[in-house]
Design brief:
Layout lengths: L2 H10 L16 H16 L3 E5 L3 E7 L5 E7 L16 E2 L2 E3 L7 H16 L7 E7 L7 H8 L6 E4 L2 E2 L3 E4 L1 E10 L2 H6 E6 L9 E7 L7 H7 L3 E4 L3 E7 L14 H11 L5 H9 L4 H5 L13 E10 L4 E10 L5 H11 L4 E8 L2 E2 L5 H14 L7 E3 L10 E4 L2 E2 L13 E3 H19 L1
Length: 442
């Protein structure tokens, strides 16, 4: 088996989901294990490595001078979720499967082996290339906040953590913890409700337990309508609703299970606050209904909202929701917070994460160099930068963009079950990143 593929398989098999902090492992032992694995691999290939207190790692090669090209990737992943048909690291019909093969372990390995080829071929670089592997990209980027404070962040570089040809704009990210007081319907009838794993994932599963006395005689028909699973006892019915997961930046590609719960509740007569929440937060027109929708066209795209998690605190009769807004350049986040406060009397909206937008000059050396490498390897021409709602480490660079790894038309299933990349495209990544490093570091 090719060494790069074996490295990726072994890397992917480490389920590096954020856990409880431990000594020298601020994001948990599994993320620490993944960081150690890739640093050890870099060392075995003859590169200089550094452990940045468990927050990040560096694999470095080049001239050793002060001018550094940064390539920012991450070793942490979101939880697996359900629905996988292939095991982690399995190769099937020309594709390699596993959480992180695209986001972002595959690109990390591709960059590492691009550097390996440059080293083995004796290609002279006039700048130092630093592969920086973070450990908290999926949960708030605390790793890069720590790293940047150390004064080691390069000025120029890219993050292979999005799409080709290149990301010209990353929208503003606003994540809020919403705490909403509920009405007597919830207090009297709802026993439990919980859904979702992360704010930046479309929830694929939601569970609610309802008193039978709240259900109409035809509730079995509604259960069939929503294809829910039910467990009944003498007094209550526990329901499980199913959707399809997707990245929170592209909620339209998923099927939010929380939406189904609220549609069901409205069907059984739970109006009041339930209907208000559904109207303003839980449908495809939520931002328009709120009055905060913006479509900035080809410059920075349209406003989106994902409700990633939900939890019913029965003792206090409140609903907690994690909201993930991806905003065009000209959106002011305070407008969103103010509007939500107006719509939900007594509601609280805490900012849990905020990343300002990134916009790159299409005529810059960085953008032109990277697109040239992409076109050289793929044979595509007239490539243009694209807009994404995703947030990458590129925002931590003074002059940075996201560059790959997903090719146009490829279904990579990031944050979904059966995340995968074709072997052909993985090898193509190595070629593209090799050429890009040479162009930037010459």
């Amino acid at each position: 088996m090719d060494d790069a593929i074996k490295t990726l398989i072994d890397f992917v098999k480490i389920e590096s989901v954020k856990g409880e902090p431990q000594e020298n492992a601020p994001f948990g032992p599994k993320v620490r294990q993944a960081l150690d694995f890739i640093l050890d691999k870099g060392k075995s290939l003859g590169f200089t490595i550094r452990d940045i207190d468990g927050y990040a790692g560096e694999i470095e090669y080049g001239s050793g001078n002060d001018e550094v090209i940064g390539i920012l990737t991450h070793a942490d992943v979101v939880p697996l979720g359900d629905g996988w048909t292939r095991s982690q690291g399995e190769i099937y019909e020309g594709r390699i499967y596993g959480r992180g093969v695209v986001d972002d372990k595959g690109p990390t390995v591709a960059v590492l082996y691009a550097l390996k080829q440059i080293k083995e071929e004796g290609i002279k670089l006039n700048k130092t290339v630093r592969l920086i592997i973070g450990c908290d990209e999926e949960s708030g980027c605390g790793c890069m906040e720590y790293y940047k404070k150390l004064g080691r962040m390069p000025q120029l570089g890219f993050s292979p953590d999005s799409d080709f040809p290149l990301i010209i704009c990353e929208k503003t990210i606003l994540q809020l913890k919403a705490t909403l007081p509920l009405d007597n319907f919830w207090k009297d009838n709802i026993l439990e409700f919980a859904a979702g794993l992360r704010v930046n994932m479309v929830p694929e599963k939601a569970q609610i337990k309802i008193k039978k006395s709240a259900l109409p005689g035809y509730y079995q028909e509604l259960i069939q309508k929503y294809k829910a699973e039910a467990e009944e006892d003498q007094d209550a019915v526990a329901l499980r609703f199913f959707g399809v997961s997707a990245h929170g930046s592209t909620p339209q590609l998923g099927d939010n299970a929380i939406w189904k719960v609220f549609n069901f509740l409205i069907d059984i007569g739970a109006w009041g606050i339930t209907k208000t929440i559904r109207h303003y937060l839980l449908n495809e027109n939520a931002c328009k209904n709120m009055g905060v929708y913006i479509d900035d066209g080809s410059r920075s795209g349209e406003q989106t909202l994902n409700v990633g998690t939900a939890y019913y605190d029965k003792d206090n009769n409140i609903l907690e929701l994690d909201l993930d807004f991806r905003c065009p350049i000209n959106q002011k986040i305070q407008n969103i917070i103010n509007r939500l406060s107006d719509l939900f009397s007594g509601g609280k909206f805490e900012v849990t994460h905020h990343m300002p937008y990134l916009y790159a000059d299409p005529e810059s050396f960085l953008v032109k160099s990277l697109i040239a490498s992409y076109e050289k390897v793929t044979g595509n021409t007239d490539s243009k930068g694209i807009i994404t709602g995703g947030g990458t480490y590129a925002r931590y660079l003074q002059n940075g963009v996201a560059f790959g790894p997903t090719f146009p038309g490829e279904e990579s299933r990031i944050h979904n079950y059966d995340e995968s990349i074709s072997l052909d495209n993985f090898y193509k990544l190595i070629e593209i990143y090799k050429d890009a490093i040479i162009n930037l570091a010459k």
